[in-house]
Amino acid sequence: MKKSKKICTNCGTKLDTGAEFCPHCGAPCRVRRSKKIHIKKIPIGKIAFAAAAAAAAVVIGIVVFSFIQNRPLSEADRAEYASALEKAQSYSDNSHLSKAKIYDYLIDEEIGHFTPDEAQYAIDNLVADYN
Fold first, then answer.
1. CA–CA dist 91, 97 (Å, integer)
2. N or C end of the chain, less CB within 10 A?
């Protein structure tokens, strides 16, 4: 048999070309085949189009978000925000609660029934002396 540079993966013994088992340790000889990786090339135009579409989606999202955040409040909405602030001020003056606890009371369905936005507005505009 012709000698090769093939080596047993188990013990490191040099193996003959056609050997099915290592003569030293008896481990089966495995033929290692390298796997070819095929990389599909994507044309630059498609990448540029995808990047432009993603950028456009981000810009549209930012515009819509800004519009929603900056919309004027209706008279009823303003009344709810004012009511939340009044309730928060009452909790602060009479119970000396922390802002976090007041917020929890305001959004509680049983106690305050205000939306998180209304409660946050009240906390942000609350006049309290915590000293």
1. 7
2. C
